[in-house]
Every structure is written in C-alpha cells, then in structure tokens.
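Many introductory courses stop at the sequence. We go one step further.
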Amino acid sequence: MALPVNVYDLIRQRIVENTRIEYKADWNPEPILHSITAFANDFDNLGGGYIIIGIEESNGRPIFPLKGIDTDAIDDIEKDILNKCNLIEPRYIPVVEPTVIDGKNIILLWIPGGENRPYKCPEKVYTAKSKEKSEKSYYIRKSSNTIKANYLEERELIGLARNVPFDDRINYHAEIADMRSSLISEFLHTVESELYEDSLNRTVEEVAMDMKLIGGPRELRKPINAGLMFFNERPDNFFPYSRIEVVDKPDPTGIGMKERIFTGPLDRQLKDALAYIQNYVIAEYVTKVSNQAEAIRLFNWPYRAVEEALSNAVYHRSYQIHEPITVTVTPEKMEILSLPGPDRSISDDDLEKRVLISSRYRNRRIGDFLKELKMVEGRNTGIPLIVSSMKNNGSDLPIFKTDEERSYFRVILPIHPVFCNKQNSQKTTEERKSVRRSREEIKKLVLEILVQNGNLSMGEIAVQLGYAKISNTLRSVIKEMINEGEVKLLYPDKPNSRLQKICLT
C-alpha cells in the first residue's frame, strides 16, 4: 500500500519535522517497538510519526548514499514487525510499506496517533525461544527521542485516553460518499504521492482507508472530520462557519466596507483568501535612493507574515466553535481573529514577549495535510517567522492578544508607517489595487505565478491574479501561451478534465 505522502520529501524532512521521523539502519525490534508505541500514543497530538528502516543517520539527518536492506530479508522483517506489534497493548499495527529509493530497499512504517491510546509495550523484547516475560510500560516522544513515561506523564497520558482531537474523530452524521474522489486525487497529485495513480482506478472508500480517513467497525464505516474538511466541497455543511471572511473597513463608521467570504475545502479557502489579500490588500511602496542602484521596497504588510498568521489560524482554530476566521483590514492595521485562544501552557508573559511554544496541538490531521501541501511551517516556527517578516519589512512588531478565558486569539499586524498618511489610505483595498492589465502583463504574471506555485488550474490562476472568475481575456491569453509553447496542459488528451492543470514547458 502506497503512502499518502511523497517518500523523497519525507526522507529529506521537507514535509514532516525531524522530531516525527526516526531512521534505523537495520531492523532492531526493541527500540523500534518502543518508538512505534510512543508515536501511537501521540502525547502532544502531533499526528504520530514515521520510522524508516534501512537508512543510517547522523544528528537526526539521513546519511547518503542510503544503506538499504537486503532483498531476501524484507519478508522476514515485515513478518517480525507484525509479530512484535502484537505485543503492544492494546494491539496496534502500523502501516508497513517496503519501497525502493535510489536503488536501495527500505521499509517505511507510518504510525498515526492511535484511537485507543494509551498504548504500552514490553520494556525488553526476547526471542521466540525465550520463556522470559518483560514488564510492559508506556512510551512517549520528547523532542526527537523515545522515552519511558514517568509517573506524571503516565497519568497525563491515561487522561488523554478518550480525548481524540476533533479533526481525527469519526463523523457519524456523514457518509463516505460525502468525500469526493476528485479532491482526494488532486491532493495526492499535488503532494506527489505514489498513491495518486491507484486513486484514479479505485473507490473513494478504498483510497480513504489507505489514507486513514475512515473509522468505525466494518459494518459502520464513517469518514473522520479531517476527511470532510479537505475532501468535501462544502465542509461548512458539517462544521458551520468553517470559512474565512476578509473585511475591508476603510472607515470606522463602516462606510465603504467590503466583505469577501471564502468557503470550500480548507486548503482551497486558505489559498483563495491569501491570493485575494496578496492581489487586493497588499500594496508596495518603492522609492529610489541617490547613489544606490537598488530601490527601497516596502509593503503595507509583508505577505509572508500574513500568510503564516492566516495559515496558523486555519491550523489551530477549533472547528467545534461555529465562528469564522475573520481578517479585518483598516487604514492602521490588519487583524486576524480565530477562536479559541492559545493553550494555557502559553502565559500572558509569553504573549507579550511574542514567544508562543505550545505543549500540545489542537488539530493533528489538519496540520499533517497543510504541511504536506507546504502551507504551514514546522512545529512552533510560525510566530518567529511572522516577527522576522515584520522586522525585515521595517514594520512595527506584531501584537498577539487573548483574554483570561482563552476564548479568542487575535494577531494584529500594524501597517507600515510609510502607508499611514497616504492620500489613498481611505479608499477600499480593491480601489487601491484595481488595475487594467495588458495581455503582455497577464502573460508575465501567469509565468511568475506558475514558477512560484507549480502547476495550477485556470481557476486557480484567476484567483492568483485577483479575478472573481475566469475572464475571456485570461482564457484567450493562456490559449495563446499554449500555442506559442510557453505553457502546456498537464493532460493534453483530456482538455476538459476536472484535474486539468496549466504547466510550465
């Protein structure tokens, strides 16, 4: 069974943090069994982890060229993995996937957070002939290490037993058919998973089972919430107000206020909202400096800071609270509001110092999907990136606010001072950014968008350009670019396919 991630990116830690990956040169049952148990316990709700057998490591990084596993040993190792996992209590079996990378055999173990935690396993693993038995203990992950849980950690782990994150829970009000095969295939294609080709010829249920998007007994299979959030066209039908609202408020009285609402699968609404903000909200100020070749370029808000703040809101908000994420733009600041607030492990002093390190995450599967799509950064790196982006732009530092009950989280990005007193500050952002482009300008922008984002559908390109829909001019320009060989169709023999993308040649 292929994994729903790109194996090359996984090995090189491009989509999953190194704390969630272990490299093992050979099959060593005892430490590997401990790590399987620790990942299954998912103490911090990070989404479990991966163990890769056949790769040597140095300081947590893989060593190339890969060591690999002898072909004759693969079957025996697979059988032994299953036998040893029977020692875990309650029983837990990871996804085992042998594959070939750079001509070397390796075995990948995918260990999602288990539904029946806490899990424990023997401290010592003896041979089949030995009559000795070992005491069983709970294991957890701390940073990049697997450790035996102490008394307090054990109590906390047991307390998490029935606390499965909401996005990983089974939704008994939905059906497997509510997940769309086209959206699943598009996701697998985007992340370059080997599962993509299989997804085109298999049922939604079969592919969703491989992706761990389905739970429940065989006679009552149901989708998990994350599957509906990413692979249903209107997740707000199941999770009311799971959307992003961008409000442009040029005047405190509300005169001239404009509002845009972005719905759909979480990754799509995030992309569309960011594209709208980039094209209609963010403005650039350029000034030449004497005796200097390069001009000074400043932005009212640096896009990287906005992108990270909004992505974090989608990742960390609660989908049990029926309120949208709101982005409010005024002449002085941009505010991104999501509910609820940060974990209580983050103190008021931490907020003031802009040091937000959470001990436990709210949505583990949403985080996995967004990381695989390269839409969020690794663990606890988002806030430092927002701060550094604002500093590099010469803007005032961001402000993070919540209340005593931790009922909300507000990220405030002050506008760059150079934009505060401009004459056009009272215009709506759409008026400030509205520009009629020539065909040559559109061609240039299309190429830039494809270079930055990879293959995109015509609708996605239109959103990136800030258009409300695909215009006749855009259709004509892209057709001209295809004829001239500047771009091409991903599926030239299926021009009307729902999965059709525009690609660079």
